[in-house]
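Priority: medium. Attachment 1 of 2:
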């Protein structure tokens, strides 16, 4: 079996797929399935590629926690020097629990609530990425009440087309995020009039799974043009944040190296004393993880074959939601001839399709399969649909592995629920 992804952490040895030096069937037997498995080395290597992308220029990589918010994953990256990009009070809580230093946390999102803003101010984050004028006023009021000054960066939608899936395109004028470049001058002028606000940066995030460097150059160019105009008005910003979105290989895509994105933007920065921030999520986590699953039944109907597995759309929603392709491979491929089958979960929806018409050596019940490239937007987007307990998560380092999140139990499924006390006694 050939792996389409390009990673040193996942390799067949003597006919069995390994994560680093641990055979995946061992994890299947000892921890059960479905289970997310992450390679520590892959996480750290990818983070360091991002960290080194800018060479001599001062930079900070704020790992985008939304791609994988498990404490074990975040802590591995924070230990290497990662800051964190958060989008909710819950993510801020997780980032701090994982050991992030508050002054390396950036906080984006179009609907930050008052309590979330207060929590972030109390923590002392690096800056808020502000997405609207009403939000700026809200932050100002709360900061003043608390006797704080809120550092802010404006999120600009530079109106570039990153040529990715429409659900994950975020930097176009018609998207809900940020403000138009023309509005940004007024934004910063307003900042100057607000006592609770300190404008420190400018940000963009143009989309996700972007396989071209050019949209970053175009976007950064528009932001930098703005910096020039602000300077004329006596306002100098410290941070240029180009967001995340750097693409990865799920199949046979050939994404740029993260240094290529940096090299495309760097010439625009000459003569500017800016610290660069990037917010990669998927780039670091996608190919660091797989979802390990077991075949429940092989079912042959007249028109189609089905491999029914114990993972489902509640565990990994990307194939259903974005028609995303994830390679699915046997852990120990059999010598059997290939069959073509839909690989489906047990959920009562036709959409519970994880791989359509896949050609794969014919498996038998209990064989292990891996859904590849599942480290980003996998567990974080899982749910309990059909009252399925969420899977466990495991981190592999060398020849060792640890459970970093236990599998949910049936009791977890009903935690916090109570019967209404107006219910008639039966
Ligand atoms: N920064 C901001 C402000 C973001 O909104 C995002 C992602 C990132 C950074 C990280 O983007 P990344 O480097 O991971 O592409 N659920 C979708 C992806 C949604 C991305 C949302 N924002 C998926 O599974 O493809």
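Attachment 2 of 2:
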């Amino acid at each position: 079996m050939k792996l389409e992804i390009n990673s040193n952490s996942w390799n067949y040895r003597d006919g069995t797929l390994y994560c680093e030096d641990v055979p995946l069937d061992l994890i299947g037997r000892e921890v059960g399935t479905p289970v997310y498995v992450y390679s520590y080395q892959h996480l750290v290597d990818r983070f360091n590629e991002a960290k080194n992308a800018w060479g001599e220029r001062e930079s900070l990589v704020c790992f985008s926690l939304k791609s994988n918010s498990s404490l074990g994953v975040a802590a591995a990256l924070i230990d290497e020097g990662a800051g964190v990009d958060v989008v909710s009070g819950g993510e801020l809580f997780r980032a701090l629990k994982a050991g992030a230093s508050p002054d390396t946390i950036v906080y984006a999102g179009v609907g930050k609530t008052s309590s979330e803003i207060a929590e972030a101010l109390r923590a002392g984050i690096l800056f808020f990425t502000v997405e609207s004028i009403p939000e700026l006023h809200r932050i100002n009021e709360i900061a003043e009440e608390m006797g704080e000054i809120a550092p802010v960066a404006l999120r600009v939608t530079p109106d570039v087309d990153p040529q990715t899936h429409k659900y994950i395109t975020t930097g176009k004028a018609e998207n809900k995020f940020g403000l138009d470049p023309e509005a940004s001058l007024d934004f910063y002028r307003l900042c100057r009039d607000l006592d609770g606000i300190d404008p420190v940066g400018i940000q963009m995030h143009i989309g996700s799974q972007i396989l071209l460097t050019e949209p970053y150059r175009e976007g950064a160019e528009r932001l930098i043009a703005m910096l020039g105009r602000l300077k004329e008005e006596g306002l100098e910003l410290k941070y240029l944040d180009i967001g995340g979105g750097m693409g990865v290989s799920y199949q046979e895509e050939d994404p740029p190296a993260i240094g290529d994105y940096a090299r495309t933007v760097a010439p625009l920065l000459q003569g500017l004393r800016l610290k660069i921030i990037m917010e990669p999520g998927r780039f670091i986590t996608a190919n660091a993880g797989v979802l390990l699953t077991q075949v429940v039944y092989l079912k042959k109907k007249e028109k189609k074959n089905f491999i029914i597995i114990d993972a489902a759309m509640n565990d990994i929603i990307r194939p259903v939601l974005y028609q995303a392709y994830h390679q699915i491979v046997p852990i120990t491929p059999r010598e059997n001839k290939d069959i073509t089958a839909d690989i489906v979960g047990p959920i009562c929806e036709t959409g519970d399709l994880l791989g359509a018409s896949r050609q794969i050596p014919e498996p038998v019940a209990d064989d292990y399969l891996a859904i590849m490239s599942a480290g980003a937007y996998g567990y974080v987007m899982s749910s309990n649909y059909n009252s399925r307990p969420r899977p466990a998560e495991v981190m592999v380092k060398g020849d060792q592995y640890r459970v970093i999140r236990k599998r949910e139990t049936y009791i977890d499924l009903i935690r916090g629920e109570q019967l209404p006390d107006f219910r008639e006694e039966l």
